Amino acid sequence: MPEGPEIRRAADCIEAVLAGEIVEAVRFGLPRLRRHAPTLRGHRVTGLETRGKALLTHFEHGWSLYSHNQLYGVWRVQRRGRLPKTNRSLRVALHTASHSALLYSASDISVWRTEELAAHPFLARIGPDILSPALSWRVIAARLGEARFARRQLADLYLDQAFLAGVGNYLRAEILFAAGLDPARRAGDLGRGERGRLARATLAVSRRSYETAGIVLPPRLAGRLEREGLPRERRRFFVFGRDGHPCYRCGGEVQRYERGGRRLYRCPACQPAAA
DNA sequence: TCTTTATGGTGAG
DNA sequence: TCACCCTAAAGAT
Q1: What is the largest CA-CA distance in chain A?
Q2: Domain boundaries A4-119, corresponding CATH code
Q3: Distance between CA atoms of A79 and A178, rounded to whole angstroms?
Q4: Could you state, in order of their start, the residue ranges of all structural domains in chain A?
Q5: Strand B nucleotides below 7 A of a protein CB?
Q6: What pTM was estimated for this model as a whole?
Q7: Which fold would CATH assign to domain A137-264?
Q8: pLDDT in tens, A49-97
Q9: Catalytic residue list of A
């Protein structure tokens, strides 16, 4: 459940059953966290918040649960009762009178005084959340023009949570494809029009992914591919994971590269190198 | 049963 | 740039 849109959707599901409710029982699977269970037990959840890929569960008495799913974590929400049969390790269980929110496999979990969250090492350094309603394309465009980001390649900038929080490897590839920009371009070399185009694509792709639970392709195309029998995982993206296949836009072959230990995808024709 | 891979992140050099 | 941490599933043997 890795990138910003997926985390925000998980937060929505948890919020639906926890917000306004008292958490009657708390269980932590990690020994180092067990002492915090009494801190949260018996208190009301005020709401869920996401900051990039970090998820915060806020309690009325001024405490918050921080969790980051990294690559592996996954939240499940269910009616209170028997826990599902699974090989995954249960790391957090929050039970209200009627429901349970269960976090499996994640390892980056901690309990904080809400007022001290700003000091969290990850939260302290991340940039604006891509799904924040307050984030406009103009803010992103302005950020792209800032001196501290100017000499960075877009490929690197778009994985840097200090630039924008919530973008991960698939959003990076899909956003840069949507903007028609070569990932090797440097932020400072973009023209005004290109910055605007990239900023709008950043919001559009992120929001679409949130709304569709991760399907970046437009509905018509996604529907056609579904009728052709492609499994869901194979009909989500324009370029991510599609190396060797024809680009949906131009028919050219999607290419795969390696950069910083992460896979990077690009359609050379739709995202031409700078002249 | 092993090795590899992954939509993530940190810290050393 | 690289090694490493983390966990689970998929692939190779």
Answers
A1: 62
A2: 3.20.190.10
A3: 40
A4: 4-119, 137-264
A5: 6-11
A6: 0.97
A7: Helicase, Ruva Protein; domain 3 (1.10.8)
A8: 999 999 999 999 999 999 999 999 999 999 999 999 999 999 999 999 9
A9: 2-3, 53, 262
